[in-house]
C-alpha cells in the first residue's frame, strides 16, 4: 500500500522533531551509541575507529593508549561532554574518557578522568599555559554504567555524575587564559604519545558532545533519562 504524505508550503525539517525531541539541544548535539553494530549516531555524524577497541554487544572497551573513536567534532572552548560508561573497577587505576587530552604541552587539552583508586572523577580544562582540575567523589566504581558530564567554559570547568536519578556536582574550578588544541574530540583514546598518568580500561556505551553551549542541570537529567529509557533494560545503569 502506498503511503500518504503531506507537503506543507514553507515547512522545513527541524532536528528537534521526533527522535531529537527527547534529547537536549539536538540542533548542536553529537550523540553516539556503541556496540556490535559499530558506532551508531543518534544525532550528528558517525565516529571513526582508532586502533582496535574491544567491541561488546552494547558497548566497547578502550583506553588512552589503545582502542577508541574519533568523533570528528573540532574542540571548542565552551562545551558539555558526556559519557555513559563503566569505569575500571575499584583500585585498578585511572582512565581517560572523552576529550582532546595530549598529556603535555600547551594547551594540554580537555578531558574527563576516572580514578578508581580514589573514587573520584574529574574534568581537566586546558589553558594557554597549564590546566585546572575539578574533582568530586562519585562512588561509581561498582560495575554499573553511569552517565557523567563535564562542562567547559571560558573561565570555568565543572564535573557531574548522575547517580540513582540525582546529579552529583563538583564545586567548579575557575581559570584564565583558556585555550584548547586544534584537534577533534576523541572517545577513550587520547592524543598522548605515552601515558604518564594511567591508562586503565574503560567501557563506554554512549557519548555526547554539545559544542558552544552548556547543558543545564535539568537538561543533564533529561539526557540521563533518555539513555535509561533506551538502554536501561539492556545494561545496568546506576
Automatic annotation (TrEMBL):
User: Which branch of life, at top level?
Assistant: Bacteria
The name this protein goes by in its record: Uncharacterized protein
Amino acid at each position: 500500500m502506498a503511503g500518504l504524505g503531506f507537503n506543507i508550503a514553507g515547512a522545513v525539517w527541524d532536528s528537534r522533531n521526533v527522535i531529537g525531541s527527547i534529547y537536549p539541544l539536538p540542533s548542536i548535539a553529537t550523540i553516539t551509541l556503541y556496540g556490535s553494530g559499530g558506532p551508531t549516531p543518534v544525532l550528528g555524524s558517525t565516529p571513526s575507529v582508532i586502533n582496535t577497541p574491544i567491541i561488546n554487544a552494547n558497548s566497547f572497551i578502550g583506553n588512552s593508549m589503545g582502542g577508541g573513536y574519533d568523533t570528528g567534532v573540532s574542540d571548542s572552548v565552551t562545551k558539555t561532554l558526556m559519557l555513559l560508561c563503566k569505569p575500571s573497577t575499584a583500585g585498578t587505576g585511572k582512565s581517560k574518557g572523552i576529550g582532546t587530552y595530549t598529556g603535555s604541552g600547551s594547551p594540554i587539552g580537555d578531558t574527563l578522568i576516572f580514578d578508581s583508586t580514589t573514587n573520584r572523577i574529574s574534568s581537566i580544562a586546558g589553558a594557554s599555559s597549564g590546566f585546572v582540575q575539578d574533582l568530586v567523589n562519585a562512588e561509581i566504581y561498582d560495575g554499573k554504567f553511569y552517565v557523567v558530564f563535564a562542562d567547559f567554559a571560558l573561565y570555568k570547568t565543572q564535573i557531574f555524575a548522575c547517580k540513582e536519578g540525582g546529579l552529583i556536582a563538583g564545586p567548579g574550578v575557575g581559570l584564565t587564559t583558556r585555550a584548547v588544541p586544534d584537534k577533534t574530540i576523541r572517545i577513550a583514546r587520547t592524543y598522548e604519545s605515552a601515558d604518564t598518568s594511567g591508562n586503565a580500561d574503560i567501557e563506554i556505551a554512549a557519548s555526547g558532545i554539545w559544542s558552544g553551549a552548556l547543558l543545564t542541570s535539568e537538561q543533564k537529567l533529561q539526557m540521563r533519562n533518555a539513555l535509561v529509557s533506551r538502554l536501561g533494560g539492556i545494561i545496568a545503569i546506576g
